[in-house]
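A.,

Following up on our hallway conversation. Structure tokens first:
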């Protein structure tokens, strides 16, 4: 089975000043991430502002990065809509385009039942041979996929894991307890990485790894080798950063930080807007306190 490692970075999408995708800077950022603790790249997730990108832009960014990194790491492609038919089509097209795996979000806005969610993912899994990671993020979709539904889906061979962003350690525990041992439990929240590791989690699909990837990697490696004291020290050290990079909606603070460390990540596409001056000063203070800038 394809392995994704300890740290998957949900990469921001760089834009030019005119709003076009900056593919070259996407490559430069991807190479930087892989040199600084990232094991796998997630392209066109929420942090990558996928809701404001066209399908053609998403595929071109994924393919451009894939060619550039020359097999150094897997690429997970973020996808999924609240329409099962469209999501099935996307999965097939993403496989043809060269994605290594798919991160598929739980259907948003429509508020389907648990059975509706189950059937949605069954249909997508049947349309591709690629490994699929479920993305459960109730704060953005308005619905939570219950652990029982996750466990049912975990029986499907190419549904290999979940990015669990419900914030519920109880739910994550029940998934780990009842799903097959090979089913991958990834934290979708940097703050929850260490707690999920403690119940058998695989690692983190991270935002903070753009700026502290080596320390996040060290924390996970230390925990897995039994150095829980050092892992806890790192979690406590990074905890305030993990909190503050979400002081307004992701990906606004992290994209600002990526710009500050020397990448031309650019601004955002509407309706997302950049930090105001007071928010920039607040973010500068956080970054300086961690010696990031």
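Then the amino acids I'd put at each of the 293 positions:
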């Amino acid at each position: 089975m394809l392995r994704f490692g300890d740290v998957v970075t949900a990469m921001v999408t760089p834009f030019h000043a005119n709003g076009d995708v900056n593919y070259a800077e996407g490559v430069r950022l991807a190479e930087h991430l892989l040199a600084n603790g990232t094991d796998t790249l997630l392209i066109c997730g929420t942090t990558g502002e996928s809701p404001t990108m066209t399908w053609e832009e998403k595929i071109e960014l994924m393919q451009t990065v894939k060619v550039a990194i020359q097999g150094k790491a897997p690429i997970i492609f973020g996808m999924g809509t609240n329409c099962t038919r469209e999501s099935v089509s996307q999965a097939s097209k993403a496989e043809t385009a060269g994605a290594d795996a798919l991160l598929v979000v739980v259907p948003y806005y429509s508020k389907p039942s648990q059975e509706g969610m189950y059937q949605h993912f069954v249909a997508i899994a049947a349309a591709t041979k690629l490994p699929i990671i479920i993305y459960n993020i109730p704060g953005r979709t308005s619905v939570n996929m219950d652990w029982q539904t996750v466990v049912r889906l975990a029986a499907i061979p190419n549904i290999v894991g979940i990015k669990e962003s419900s914030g519920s350690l109880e739910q994550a525990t029940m998934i780990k307890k009842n799903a097959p041992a090979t089913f991958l439990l990834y934290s979708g929240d940097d703050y929850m990485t260490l707690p999920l590791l403690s119940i058998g989690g695989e690692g983190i699909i991270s935002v903070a790894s753009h700026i502290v990837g080596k320390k996040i990697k060290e924390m996970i490696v230390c925990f897995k080798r039994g150095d829980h004291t050092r892992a806890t020290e790192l979690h406590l050290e990074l905890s305030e950063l993990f909190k503050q990079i979400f002081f307004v909606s992701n990906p606004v603070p992290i994209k600002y930080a990526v710009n500050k460390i020397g990448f031309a990540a650019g601004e955002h596409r509407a309706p997302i807007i950049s930090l105001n001056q007071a928010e920039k000063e607040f973010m500068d203070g956080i970054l300086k306190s961690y010696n990031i800038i």
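Strands lie at 7-10, 40-43, 75-79, 101-105, 132-136, 159-164, 184-187, 203-206. Curious whether your intuition agrees with the design.

B.
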